[in-house]
Amino acid sequence: NAGVTQTPKFQVLKTGQSMTLQCAQDMNHNSMYWYRQDPGMGLRLIYYSASEGTTDKGEVPNGYNVSRLNKREFSLRLESAAPSQTSVYFCASRLSGGPIQYFGAGTRLSVL
Amino acid sequence: RKEVEQDPGPFNVPEGATVAFNCTYSNSASQSFFWYRQDCRKEPKLLMSVYSSGNEDGRFTAQLNRASQYISLLIRDSKLSDSATYLCVVNEGNQFYFGTGTSLTVIP
């Protein structure tokens, strides 16, 4: 049972570089989420997708774009990375209306 | 104002102690409430949901007070394995709001 799989696990970028964080879930969940976690800030929602074909901004969407490629996959793109985007990124999924979010193992991103 | 506020701790308690964590939330229309556990450098995982009637899971008891917009978690007979960060989480529609977490270390 893979659950929620995120790739890569670690990444170092230079300022201005772009990259895409991948997330896939095999639980047939409708809703998927991208969060970032910074020390002292807790998890903050970047974007979410309530169902295939829809995406919505969360609390901190600036500097990011997302794609809900299909029901399984939800990617997060940094077009021009900045040091302020150094963080741990978590993808999560849940069944629509269900109470529980299931998280991936996270991607640790450093932007130099 | 933050949606969810928690005392960050840290709480350092001896094995066998009882420890309580508190959390407040700002939106009275919030629908569902949870405690998640996060181990160091790991992803958050659901510990338990929280209901107004109170609910218990072994050594863990959670309580919700909607009038005061207050959520609590009580851990009895603390074990070394309880050392982690405990996140208070509130659900509003499609969105979840996380507290910053309360750090617990159980000392032998």
Tell me briefly what this model is.
The complex is a heterodimer of chains A (112) and B (108). By secondary structure, chain A is mainly β.
Give a written overview of the molecule:
- The complex is a heterodimer of chains A (112) and B (108).
- Chain A is mainly β and 112 residues long.
- Chain A contains no helices and eleven strands.
- Helices cover 0% and strands 52% of the residues of chain A.
- In chain A, the strands form two sheets. In chain A, strands 2, 4, 5, 6, 9, 10 and 11 form a seven-stranded mixed sheet that branches. In chain A, strands 1-3-8-7 form a four-stranded antiparallel sheet, with no helix packed on it.
- The radius of gyration of chain A is 13 Å and the shape is globular.
- Chain B is mostly beta strands and 108 residues long.
- In chain B, strands 2, 4, 5, 9, 10 and 11 form a six-stranded mixed sheet that branches. Chain B has a five-stranded antiparallel sheet with strand order 1-3-8-7-6, with no helix packed on it.
- The interface between A and B is medium-sized, with 21 and 20 residues.
Q: Into which percent range does the helicity of residues of chain B fall? A: under 10%
Biggest sheet record of chain B:
6 strands, mixed
Low-confidence stretches of chain B: none
| Backbone structural class of chain B | mainly beta
Q: How many E strands of chain B?
A: 11
Number of DSSP strand runs of chain A? 11
Order of helices and strands of chain A: EEEEEEEEEEE
Number of helices of chain A: 0
pLDDT < 50 stretches of chain A = none
Largest sheet of chain A: 7 strands, mixed
Report strand % of chain B: over 45%
Kindly report the oligomeric state of this protein: heterodimer
Principal-axis shape of chain A equals globular
Most extensive protein-chain contact, per-chain counts:
A-B, 21 and 20 residues
* Total of DSSP H or I helical runs spanning 4+ residues of chain B: 0
For the CA atoms, what is the radius of gyration of chain A? Answer: 13 Å
| Average of per-residue pLDDT values of chain A | 94
